[in-house]
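hey can u check if this looks right to u? its 238 residues, i copy pasted from the old doc so theres a chance i mangled smth
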Amino acid sequence: MRTTVIAEPDNPGWKSLCAVGGIAALVAILIAPAEMVISLLPEVQRVTTSTVTVADWFTLFQNHWYLGLRNLGLLNLAGAALLAPAILAVWFVLRRENEAYATLGTILFFVGIAVYIAGNRGFPMLALSHQYASATTDAERSLIAAAGQAMLAEGQSRSGVLVIEFACLMISAVMLRGTVFSKATACAGMLGNGLMMIVEIAFLPPRGVGMIVAAAGGLALMIWYLLIGRRLLQLRRL
């Protein structure tokens, strides 16, 4: 039986936080299907497979700036941004049952977001593509291409994503030991984040078995977001 969560006198805005977090979690569900639909578009597949060199990336940004940003993780950034208020609301609820680990997981989550945003090279590459297009000499284009190559190399690191997934795994474990969220919610979060961590460590880029693991992890995460969003909206009315 779940413990009823009541408002605290010194936190009059907690219901608003639960509402914002719940809505954000539900909206985050749309990120994975949107990514899949975009990936299956013929034009996107053609453009993506033909983007090999730095000059190809600059051409992609000049002709299809949105696809350039998407291929460098724009939707992942949007998903992380949407999940942030949901995780904050979850921390507010869980801290009454296990403040230490709920707080640690939340801190790690925001550290992961900071690392991921700092390491993303989508918008810097977009800016470089404009400079490359306006360059008037081969020397200028060579310098800009070298800078672009360095950015792409730096952007290969996905350590921030791994930290986010580990943090969400820890938060799901706290849910499992608590009474506010259902066991199904906790298990979905542990399964989804655990599988996505395996993908990040062993199957990147995912192919074959990696695609199956990623699909299973993505489905579990969508269920996790749904259950979190629904429960936070329920708590808002208590």
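Residues 146 and 172 are 43 Å apart (CA to CA).
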